[in-house]
Amino acid sequence: MIRNEEIPFEQLRVVDSDGKMVGIMSKSEAINFARSKGLDLILVAPTAQPPVARVLDYGKYKYELSKREQKAKKNQKVIEVKEMKFRPVINEHDYQTKVKHIRRFLEDGNKVKVTVMFRGREMAFMDKGKEILNRIVNDVSDLGVVEKEAKVEGRDMIMVLKPKNL
Question: Translation initiation factor 3 N-terminal domain: from which residue to which, for each copy (predicted)?
């Protein structure tokens, strides 16, 4: 926020604290005008011809700006990426438990990174990992869709799911 003597322009279009156009003035006249009202001169549109400066109470303006930012931050939803790890050889109960967690994450509006980890000779059975990921997609198709298709990174096969409403 550029104000008062920090303003680099010599000619400014000045707007009063009520929003009324005062006119084009030199920088020193504009600063004297603002000080006579007990306020600050703040540059609001530096790219305009001539640049626009407004007469405001800087402290109050900064406070209102921070309040507006806090309100915007309060209303936004932070999406987390949760991770669920599988192995190519997994028991049915363990699979169902992990799928239940994935469903809960998607219901909460979070993305889910599904990883199938391979160790040693399991690398030869990549198709088994692909089957597991396809089965997961089918089991959660009512809540989520695939954001990133399955791909192999090192010894892991990774896929990202996102909620349907995103």
Answer: 4-72
Phi, psi dihedrals of residue 21, rounded to the nearest 5°: -75, 125
The pLDDT mean for the chain works out to 91
Neighbours of 128 (CB within 10 A): 16
Question: What is the average pLDDT across 21-31?
Answer: 90
Instruction: Write the CA distances from 54 to 26, 35, 36, 87, integer angstroms.
Output: 13, 12, 14, 63
Q: What percent of the chain has pLDDT over 70?
A: 99
Distance between CA atoms of residues 133 and 135, nearest Å: 5
Predicted confidence at residue 77, as pLDDT, reads 77
Interval 47-106: pLDDT, tens: 988 999 999 988 888 898 899 999 888 887 778 899 999 999 999 999 999 999 999 999
Round to whole Å and give the CA distance between 44 and 2: 8
Q: Does domain 4-75 have CATH number 3.40.50.150?
A: no
> How many whole angstroms separate alpha carbon 65 and alpha carbon 138?
47
**Range list for CATH 3.30.110.10 in the chain:** 81-163
